Amino acid sequence: MTDQHGTRPEQQRYLLDNRQDEAGERFVALAELFDPWTLRHLDDAGLTGGWACWEVGAGGPELPNRLAERVGPTGRVVATDLDTGWLAGDRVHPRVEVLRHDVAADPAPTGPFDLVHARLVLVHVADRERALRTMVEALRPGGVLVLEDADPALQPLICLDEYGPEQRLANRLRAGFRTLLAERGADLGYGRTLPRLLRGAGLADVRAEAYFPVTSPACAVLESATVRQVRAQLVERGLATEAEIEQHLAAVAAGRLDLTTSPLITAWGRRG
To answer: pTM for this structure?
Structure first.
């Protein structure tokens, strides 16, 4: 069901709307930060030529394109999202099949799949249990599910070294951002639950690791795009003033802040 603008309720609920220009900046930064980590785990899971892969909540084209290169002409990559605007045209590898899809409401794409992967998706989904069940059921016997989600409650700061007023302001704005996420239904401690949830879904050989960069140029790009994307909500809720946001963005642009991310917890298991 959509409104008169073709927007689904889940898109209205999601704080970081993919239709905003800053979303593209965020996708590029997230790819730079996390794609090497993600691809290492997918390769370790056996990703190879001929595999059928479902990338859930793909967002941008970077990771689906990498998957298409790895599975080759005999493989298959399906990339789905609520909003596929960033997966259009020549941005996307010709072997990537793009579908508009709600993992918490729609049936899985035609499978089965050797690999199902979702990164920074389930933490924002209302019916996480149903989404997880859909992904597990889409696997072939022996197929691998890899889930990656942030755990902001585990490490809530964006400046680990809070030594001055600019760092304190950055951390206060990050606290405001977490407030907005929680108000939209995000589970800020979801990442740590992934191993338990995968075992509960019946998967075998479940393991997990966590990763976060302490400082990186891509962290600065991600922070700038994120703050600009939610600045109106921060101001409306009284979580920051326009002056504070401008001051913070200037500090980010000047490179005066060592910015990190919430830990990204990667968990994986096989369907029996």
So the answer is: 0.90
